[in-house]
Amino acid sequence: MFRIANHYVSKIVFLLLFVEVLVLLGAAYVGAALRLLEYGDAAAAAHLDHFFTSAVAFTVAIIFSMSAMGMYQLDFDEGLRHPFFMKLMPSFLMAFAILALVFYMAPELSFGRGTMAIVFAVAGIGIFLARMAFFKSSEARILQSRIMFLGGGPLAKECSDLAARPSNYHRYNIAGFIPSPSEELCVPDTALLSVRDGDSLVSLARQHSVSEIVVSVQNRRGGFPIKELLDCKLQGIRVTDAATFFERETCQIRVDSLQPSWLVFGGGFDQSFARTFMKRTFDLVCSTLILAVTFPLMLLAALLIYLEDRGPVFYSQERVGKDGKTFFVHKFRSMRTDAEQAGTPQWAARNDPRVTRFGNVMRKTRIDELPQILNVFKGEMSFVGPRPERPYFVEQLIEVVPYYNVRHSIKPGITGWAQVRYGYGSSAEDALQKLQYDLYYVKNNSLFLDVLVLINTLKVVLFRSGR
To answer: Where does the protein principally reside (predicted)?
Structure first.
């Protein structure tokens, strides 16, 4: 893993993305060369005047579409089986629609129908071969890294379970554990490393070909080998604490094993003027574009809501925003008008019986969220951010969920990292899981992460997952 604008990005995914960008650019030129063999030199030169721009547009459209279809959420166990083609074909169709719009607006960039067909065919073959090479390399353990854990208690067990699970982006080879005498042993005896008198952490790491040490000791008082860990770091062995390991591998911040000092002295939490200005500009641009594109759909949705039960089209509800200030959020009504007859707020749940027939469609496609664009224009919300909750639930969650108020340090969003990564939440336990994703976003928020959330939101809408 490495970081782009504070967000952890898999080296494997980045390398695959880089290779496929080259493949797609090459496919554009190969396809054009095959098509232009029948033309003379003058005609070919005239056609290729803007070809690099056309090739870049083609590459961006394909990469965007593949990202929206979740093709960069790799599954090495799945490999190149049936789901790969089920995602590749819709990706190409989406890219074709995007390119048709681009070429309609800028006809001088157009490939031509014959060239387009050849380019797509060459690109499909190239992507298949690139993916096959990546999955074969994973079988050869080229992508594995060897780690050991300092600690043998509950935290070390949880970290090792995370490292051992079939990961989309990493494959770890666990060398073993160095137990701490102050902790209850929670890992198998056979997994413990034999430490002889006089052995240092550096020599032990070298002996077992370890490239990373994960510090997973909860009690660090007395006998904690800080100097030896420093020696390891100076010798080129990565030293990672458990909180950072969880953040890197799950893209969330675990609150149950979190030290407050890690939040205080760690990086992130950028609330500078430059970041605020960029985020507000991003909010206004995205909201304006989406309002322009979806306005006819919003009119149709309003009509269908009214025709279903002759009730109100919109509903407004009090939510908690930045700095704990309340505001009224606006949505299309997706529930019956008597959804809360008892007067007590209730969690929304998957397959909620209070949801109307068309309301269920809107929730699956997120059409009900579109009126919140008005809240973005008013400055009460951002386009991307933590989901705003009702004051009734916030009061309860603050009492039982550590650090819950941290999510109120930025504006809530129409969509967010927690919504695209976790889905529905209908309990305090769900709220804890979503908070851990929200904390990751609050800590690492950037324009780059906002764009990733938007792409993932499109994937959620297309596959009808999440909330």
So the answer is: membrane
* Domains in the chain: ranges and CATH: 2-139 (no CATH), 144-250 (3.40.50.10700), 273-337+347-463 (no CATH)
Give the CA angle between residues 36, 22, 65 to the nearest 5°.
95
Paired strand residues for 171: 144
What's 360-421 look like in SS3? HHHHHHCHHHHHHHHHHHCCCCEEECCCCCCHHHHHHHHHHCCCHHHHHHCCCEEECHHHHH
Number of CB atoms found within 10 A of residue 425's CB: 23
pTM here is: 0.86
Sign of CA dihedral 219, 225, 226, 231: negative
pLDDT digits (tens, 9 = 90+) for 221-237: 767 888 999 999 999 99
* Tens-place pLDDT, residues 198-222: 789 999 999 999 999 999 988 777 6
Cα–Cα dist 426/436, whole Å: 16
CB neighbours (10 Å) of residue 454? 17
Structure tokens at 369: 């969220």
Q: Which residues contact 136 (CB under 8 A, 6 or more apart)?
A: none
Say how many Å lie between the first and final Cα of the chain, rounded.
28
Q: Which of 75, 150, 65, 66 is nearest to 102 (CA)?
A: 65
CA-CA distance, 434 to 454, in Å (whole number)? Answer: 17
